[in-house]
Amino acid sequence: MLYRLRLSIRYAFARPTGAGRQLLRISPADLPGLQEVQQTRIAVTPLPTERGGFVDFFGNEVTELALPAGLTQVRFDMTGRVLRLAEETELDLSAAARSLAADLDQIADLGPHSPLHFLRASPRIPLAADIAAFAGAACAEARTVRQQVESLGRAIHGHMRFDARATEVDTPIADSFAGRHGVCQDFSQIMISGLRSLGIPAAYVSGFLRTIPPPGRPRLEGADAMHAWVRAWTGAEAGWCEYDPTNRCFVGADHVTIGYGRDYGDVAPVTGSMRLAGSQSGSHSVDIATED
Amino acid sequence: MAGERAHSVRTSRTAGYRPLPGVPDEMMAPDGNIRPLWGRLVAHLDRLDDERLARDLSRADRYLLDSGVFYRQYGAGQSVERPWPLSHIPVLLAEDEWQDIGQALRQRADLLERLIADLYGPNDLVASGRLPAALIAGNPEWLRPMVGIRPRGGHFLHFLAFELGRGPDGKWWVLADRTQAPSGAGYALENRVATTRAFSELFPDENVHRLAGFFRDFRDALQEQNHDPDSRVAILTPGPMNETYFEHAYIARYLGFLLLEGDDLCVAGGRLMVRTVQGLRPVEVIWRRLDGHFADPLELDSASRIGTPGMMAALRAGSVTMVNALGSGILETRALMAFLPKLAPDLAGGPLAMPNIATWWCGNATARAAVRDAPGRMVLADALTTRLPFDPSDDLTRASSLTPEELNRMLSARGGDLVAQETVTLSTTPALVDGVLVPRPMTLRVYLARTPGGWAVMPGGFARIGTGPDASAIAMQDGGAAADVWVPGRGRVPVITMTRPMGAAADSRPLPGGLPARAADNLFWLGRYVERAEGVVRLMRAYHTRLAESGKSGSDLLPGFDPLFRQMGIDPRAAIPRRLLDNLAAAIGSAGNVRDRFSPDAWSALLDIDRSARRMAPQVAPGDDAARALSALLRKLAGISGLVHENMYRFVGWRFLTIGRLHERAMSMAALLAVLCDPKAPEGALDLAIEVGDSVLTHRRRFVLNASRATVIDLLALDPMNPRALRYQVDCLREQVDLLPAANTDGALSPLARQALRLHADLATSDPDALTTEALWDLRARLASLSDVLTTTYFH
């Protein structure tokens, strides 16, 4: 599927800012065999004083900006064209739930896609007893790791209500889990916590979701904003699979990946520091059209 | 002294000294004889009677107190400054033994350098199975953004410390590696100064290796990495609330480095820059005393409030040498010690010259078996802990406290999270308790610094001494003590000074360059707070003097005071008002933020005034008693001004301090005159103005007649010769403002300089009639706005 992407992020400041630095992670990723970026462009308004870029530890493309002092608003616009090749698969080659630990013991790799980075608690995803118990109960019947992933994803989808107003970007997962509501970020981070407590390596994926569904299929939740889902390691043979707990499905051609991390903090679209004297407000919009 | 000896017929201080069974003692050989190395020290101690010894040792304590040596202790939700706990008896180590220690630790330092280069580089050790991947991937000290970055100059490690203990067989063991940001080297210097004060007669004869050469060589090594003439080597501190902040400021002062906090820095054009009152200045070499995570909120711990956004970008650009590289904390991971002996042949060219304590990572079956087989000797802890052994906050489990089943279950359930170490017994060294020497367990801390000639080893300086015979009570945070370590040389040891001989390149240290904006801010406010405190004292003294003279109390007598008290926020019912104590505390707060730039004498004087004021506050009675107490405080405050103004280098820092003082004095004089020279002011107000304005004699000399509004305004507002007058402050202010950076660019005045000039011109052309109450308030408002402009120009 060929997509045309448009992302626009705006911030407004109550009082002019001091100079600041920002990191942007908003470019779609080039993933051999899964996703091909044909064109991408990021515009910053007003013009930054410095602009650079690098690839971070997890392989994500980062745009590095220094912004001048005295801003009352700033805007980042990404446009791109991406060919998404990934397809959902029904095939289960994943490890038996019991034997995943043995597979993990064999890993002597510290590269960006090593499952070992995604086993422990991370800054925004603590391991919590109630989520662990929930995950254990949800996966009691599952025999393979892929079945565990699907069972937990479905259980979270059933437990949680999608509510864009209930949580903020910094709401701890314990709160959104207890309140049983949130957005894709909450669904995904709760699922990651549950998977890790079961000993399954789980990563956070940020990206986009197609806005207009294919004919005959319903519009997906979160399509008008940036999206997030879960990547789980299912054993030496099958490797990684991706699941979207917000939409209760394995990830295929409807999703476009930006990047991977241990949690939201590793792939936040905008990480910034500014000397602020007053409040700030922000908004973002996404538009994805298919191009046939 | 012969006379003293005659009546001190007493047994030796070592007569009752008995080493613990099976534990080697530094001073006493197993046969009960004093080791020859200790002979002169023991003889010296025996020569002194109790009184003389106490007097000698108190010189050390006095020194530590006077120079304000402290560390910060945390507990029960608050932190307090604790005096440095010195154990007066130094530890003596033979030169040969010291050389062996140094040799072994150089090897270990090289091994650690190669290990970290691999962990942040190709990761061959993990890929080839020589290190377990889980130990690195799950390690919070492994800072992923550092992976792939080659440090500027090629080295990750520059300054290391090793914690050593002597085992029962007399050999030294490494107990822990300190690679993140080792503390204590500055305290070692203070241990040395204090201990030599206590043993001033003995020390020169002992021919002890000096510590200064080590610091000088390291300073020069860092300066050699500093290529840009605009740049100065800096120490990065977490700030005054850190437990060892004193040391950061001390080393910065000692070595002539800048002391910076994360917020003083920013990154521009891929370079690390310090915000100074002269604009951005580059920093190329930074000695970090801040844990790695906190260094950059953008790419490391996003919650850090003490880091520098963009620090990682500067490191990626290779524009800054960091001591030590971010991420070096991973080498402190306890479980790594299990692998160092096996890695040594490959990474250090041979077996470890000094072993570390026997360590097992319980993630593999052989290690688990070893622990099960000898639980009596084993202590279990979190595999990834970086705490020192003996740290009371270390979460330890004695394997012997578990049943075999419990131990088994723990090992199989979460072996990969556990590290086992053999319990260690340490050697003992003498400590003086109630005039008698007793054996106390000790560990040695040895510092290594990278220089162009290889690793330099600090010759002695720092041992930790336990408070009781139990080795587990040794941690400093738990009330342990520190002792100096003496390494006597066989040949004559050179006396070393910090300055190189004339003509040597390293001696051409640049003039103090950019003053960090935060330091300028603190100096300005220090000036203001001290002056404000002085103003309160003068006013209160005038009040209590009048009270004493009239013998009555009540506002009917002293009506002029009330509006002044209101204006200054003073409650006169307390002889030492709250307002004064608050100002002194604020002054100490500001001075505490710039201790690297503040003379130790002035600091002690400031603490002394604060102590006196707080002591007096509940005791002093109104009237004469209070007036005399306040006079004493005033003299002390004048002493501070003297210390600062006679001794401080006349550079930009001094200028901000001075501007703060002038500004505050001008503000309060404007208020004083506006209140007391108001036509509606009560009778006697004018005399009060002259007295609080400290100009009684001058007024008498200049005006024979009684005080009138015109004479008072003339003397206290318009007289350019009276150092208390408004005009005098404004003249000086203008002069100092003109000398600030960028105040005058090719004849174009900065907004600040322009405002100061206008203020000056208006006052110089004014006369007593024109200076109405309203005009005085207006003047004061313009002064206040001058401070705002100063703040936005220089402190942001």
UniProtKB/TrEMBL annotation, chain A:
Q: Which domain of life is it from?
A: Bacteria
Q: Entry's InterPro entries?
A: Bac_transglu_N, Papain-like_cys_pep_sf, Transglutaminase-like
PANTHER family cross-referenced by the UniProt entry: BLR2979 PROTEIN, BLR5614 PROTEIN-RELATED
> What name does UniProt use for this protein?
Transglutaminase family protein
Q: Where is the Transglutaminase-like domain?
A: 176-247
Source species: Paracoccus subflavus
From TrEMBL, chain B:
Query: Which SUPFAM superfamilies is this protein grouped with?
Result: Glutathione synthetase ATP-binding domain-like
Q: Which residues form the Circularly permuted ATP-grasp type domain?
A: 90-465
All copies of domain DUF403, residue ranges:
515-795
Signal peptide coordinates: none
Q: Name one Pfam family in it.
A: Alpha-E
* UniProt-listed InterPro entries: ATP-dep_Glu-Cys_Ligase-2, CP_ATPgrasp_2, DUF403
Disordered: annotated segments: 1-24
Q: Where are the transmembrane segments?
A: none
What PANTHER family does its record include? BLR2978 PROTEIN, BLR5612 PROTEIN
Name the record gives this protein: Uncharacterized protein
Source organism per entry reads Paracoccus subflavus
